[in-house]
Amino acid sequence: QVQLVESGGGLVQAGGSLRLSCAASGRTFSSDDMSWYRQAPGQEREFVASIEWWGRTDYAGSVRGRFIISKDNAKNTVDLQMYSLNPGDTAIYYCQRRSSGSTYWGQGTQVTVSS
Asked: How many helices (DSSP H) and strands (DSSP E) are in the chain?
């Protein structure tokens, strides 16, 4: 059974930083592509960042230069380091895993940035 558990969300002031982490179960993690998405109230879920199994990363334009995605195959975790947060980053952040043709989602972690 594939499970994804996000952690690290919370309340932070504008300009601050947070580090989200997603812990994944299963033995294929090293060959899986991982992503972070977010969903703000009343809006659709949107792509934030991704890291392919071999290390290539991609970012949404709104976070490029402020967020960094990383993957630790030894720990089965994917992290999202977020800097220079602003109120527009307030959302529930979801971890996504693509494994063997299937897509899995975590339950999400709330990030709230106060002005």
From this structure: 0, 11
β-strand 77-82 against 18-24: which pairing, if any?
antiparallel
Cα 69 to Cα 9, 19, 43: the distances in Å are 15, 10, 23
In the prediction, which pLDDT does 100 show?
85
- Among residues 42, 91, 33, the alpha carbon closest in space to that of 62 is found at 91
What pLDDT, in 10s, does the model give residues 53-103? 999 999 999 999 999 999 999 999 999 999 999 999 999 999 999 988 899
Task: Name the residue type at position 55.
Answer: G
Q: Kindly report the backbone phi and psi dihedral angles of residue 69, in degrees, each rounded to the nearest multiple of 5, phi listed first.
A: -100, 140
- C-beta atoms surrounding 27 within 10 Å: 7
Pairing of strands 109-114, 10-13: parallel
Q: Is the separation of the CB atoms in 8 and 21 below 8 Å?
A: yes
**Tokens standing for residue 98:** 């693509």
Structure tokens at 84: 């220079």
